[in-house]
Amino acid sequence: MSEQPEGSIVRATLRALAEPRRLLPILLVSAPLVAAQTRFSDEPLAPHLGVLMCLLAAGVAPVSYRVLFPEGLDLSHGGVRVLLYGTVGSGVVLMSGFVLPKLLGLGPTFLTQPTNLVVCNALFLVGGWGLGRDIGFEETLARERARAARFALEAEQAQLLALRSHLDPHFLFNTLNAIAEWCREDGAVAEAAVLRLSTMLRTVLAGVRKASWPLSQELELMRTLFDLHLLRDPELFQLTLDIPAESRATDLPVPPLVLLPLAENAVKHGPAAGHRGPLALRVLARDAEVEVALENPGESKGPREGSAGLPTVERRLALAYGDRARLALTSAEGRTRVTVTLPRSGPHPGVLT
User: Fold this and answer.
1) 222: Cβ contacts below 8 Å, ≥ 6 apart
2) Digit-coded pLDDT (tens) for 145-196
3) Rounded to whole angstroms, how far apart are CA atoms 187 and 284?
4) CATH topology of domain 167-343
5) Helix (H) or strand (E) holding 279
6) Residue 75, Cβ neighbours under 10 Å: how many?
7) CA dist 286 to 87, 114, 249, 347, Å?
8) Structure confidence by residue, pLDDT tens digits, 114-127
9) In the chain, where are the structural domains located?
10) Residue 74 pLDDT exceeds 90
């Protein structure tokens, strides 16, 4: 974590000290000291001096600790900061308990006795460490909670983007319109289309609620999408599937629906855009990785401004795998190839994608 600006640390520490759950213990410790200073001192200004010493200790000690140790007690600098903290404590105690009384011409008091000044110095150092450490822990906890909430929100937004990209309204409307026509012309085809569309929608909605599922289920969903397009137009493209029989390659866990936008893009910007030809889906298993490649006719001009397909896939891969997954887009000789490389170890545990 990066250090806060010094002024911010000072203000945040003083605000935290004013909270009742810290202010009350400070008063409970300070009150007996001021009472003893009043009871065992003949100097009329002794109570005022006692209050001043307690105020300086309660305010300066935790502030100086947090300025010197913003990330907690750290001896990596060879103890230089610890020495500075001790110097600040000794300086404040000596200034308020020795130099100031001399300048004001005050007589001896209970707290300004040499032995008691040593005790006051120890209280300064230990109290500042305890209060500063408590405030630092509280701020760290608040930051971590905010960070977790932010990650949860990002994951939820990624899920919503993924759902929106998977449920392309144009594709749904066109399919439903086609089904309406088939109902009049070919009832068997219409029934098959309804069943496939129902299966696809049920799978998509179930996948949004899951953290992961097998790659085989993702591939099956992509195949259902291709079949729906071919039901509408059997001559739209020729589908080639090259998926190894090895179960380990297709059993690895993946974020649900993470590859489906690639299948939709392959049809939308390929055969559906007038580039007829073969469409190929291949899975290649390696020792530590599995590569999924989707190739369609038509050269890609790259992601368009405002598009949600590839950016959504890239974002979900980053959330799920960090830098362990890769997406590559290449285009040449009238064809476009998207390759996703996934680690066999699967997504990070506990990550919502």
Assistant:
1) 259, 260, 262, 263, 281
2) 988 888 877 776 666 555 555 555 666 777 788 788 888 888 888 888 888 8
3) 39
4) Heat Shock Protein 90 (3.30.565)
5) strand 277-285
6) 10
7) 61, 75, 8, 17
8) 999 999 999 999 99
9) 6-149, 167-343
10) no
